[in-house]
User: Fold this.
Amino acid sequence: MNESTVMNTELRKHQATRIVYYILGVLEVLLAFRLIFKLLGANPESLFVSFIYSVSQAFLIPFNGIFRSAVTKGIEAQSVLEPTTIIAMIVYAILAWGIVKLIEISKPPQKTEIR
Assistant:
């Protein structure tokens, strides 16, 4: 395998790693917004809050039912702690890390010289 092919493969691995971490970053920010909005009792009828809740809900489906949400009712707002969101953030981070490690350990087959 020539040097150009090896460099090209390494470049592709680097790009794939960056894409995985970028997707993870977007997902983590989305889930962090959801967690903070729920904790602070944000108005779910607000367009931005409603958007965050609806988009992030799809990523929480695999983790629904693991823990109950803790609800605290205040005078004006209702604060909700969703452990599901925290679990999802941790699991997606570990999953992304695992994918990146798989990308890093995958090596192109090397030509061996027989002497």
In short: The radius of gyration is 21 Å. The beta strands are 70-73, 78-81.
